[in-house]
Every structure is written in structure tokens, then in C-alpha cells.
Amino acid sequence: MTDSTIHASDIQQAQARISSEIAPTPLQYCARLSAETGCEVYLKREDLQDVRSYKIRGALNGMSNLPQEQRHRGIVTASAGNHAQGVAYACRTMGIAGKIFVPEPTPMQKRDRIHVHGGDQVELVVVGANFDEAKAESMRLAEAHGLTVIPPFDHPQVITGQGTVAVEICRQTDMEHVDAVFCAVGGGGLLSGVAAYIKRVAPPHVKVMGVETYDADALAQSLERRERVELSDVGLFSDGTAVRVMG
Description:
two-stranded antiparallel sheet, alpha/beta, 247 residues
């Protein structure tokens, strides 16, 4: 990519790039949600990834594009927990040293999985009351030591990697019969990548919908005010999307 514009071809190339590391996840019919909503609901089973979420896609794509010099110096990232697991996995498989910052509310299960996926390639730093505070600490370290930042959502290569979810969806079903694709929203990386692909490749009637919790609605407020809004605090019911400000 020569600019920040993300094209369908970029996402298709990312799919080919990361396919040696991860297999496609199934698009599975959900009888219970279909009965409750009166619609045919299918779930993209990204929970079946080794790191239990789609975040591994952006981490792998972002880190596979790093020049050798940046790989040698190491990387740093901040995460609510899911992106951290993807980065840890990529650090171990690519032999890149990483410092991973997570906030104090990050569940112990996620912390343990970061250690499992990263092994001795990663150092876990627990700091801050929320993602944004952990991010601030990670940025200070990166600037002080010249480390490359692999952000969880606010980067074209990471967004492109997350968009590979949409490549698989379009291959797994007839999009002529799809009304909408729903994406959970924290920083907006998944939503951006999926929308970039779906709105260029799928039939024009297919909508892409972002979904937030009421107490972490940075996207809804930002759209309403037509500028990025930073929330004073966020609820942790959905800790993986608890972000105060959008990418």
C-alpha cells in the first residue's frame, strides 16, 4: 500500500500471506439466535483460532511486513488481552522479541495465554486501569528505546489483516442472500477491515453493522458528533472492546 487506503486486493494478499499460519474458521449456523431473532444467523467462529480471537490475523500481517532491522530491535504493543495473544504468537513463530502491555483488569486467563503463546520471546507488563493507560505506557517505552509499535487496531496493515475475516465469509456463503454482517467494535480495526472488503466485493445491499455496549460507545458518540470522542470511562462487561477512543 502506498497510502492509508485499504483495497480489496490488499486484503486478499494478506489472506494469502497469513494462510500458512492459520486455517480458515467455519461460518456456523446458530439455531438459538436464529430462533430468537427470526433471522438466519451465522457465527464466524474466530474463537476457534489458537489465540481464541480474530486478532491473530492483524498481528501476523502487521509483523510479517516488518523490515529485518525492526524485527531485530523488537516490538511493543498494548492490548486488552486478545491482540496481545496474537502478537505473542507472532513473536514466538517469527523469533521477534516483544514487550506486551495489558491493563490491570485483564483476566488472568488471558495473561496466562499470552505467556503460553509467546514463551520466552515476550515480556508481559501489567499496568494501568484500562487499555488507554496501558497504551500510554507502551508508547513511552517504544519512543525511549526505538521499538516498533504493533497497535491493536489503528494501523493499515493490522486492519488489512483483520479484514481477512471478510474474505473467508464471502467464500463460505452466497452473499446475495446476506442482509448484514455484524462486527463488535472496540477500536474499530475489525469493522474497518471487514467494511473495506465487504463494501467493495459483496453486493451493494449488504450492510456492515458495528455493535457496541452502552457503556463503551465511542463509535456511536463519535459518529453523532462527527469527530473522535474520548470517553471519560468505559465499562468492562465486554473487556475486549473496552476502548475509550476509536482508532
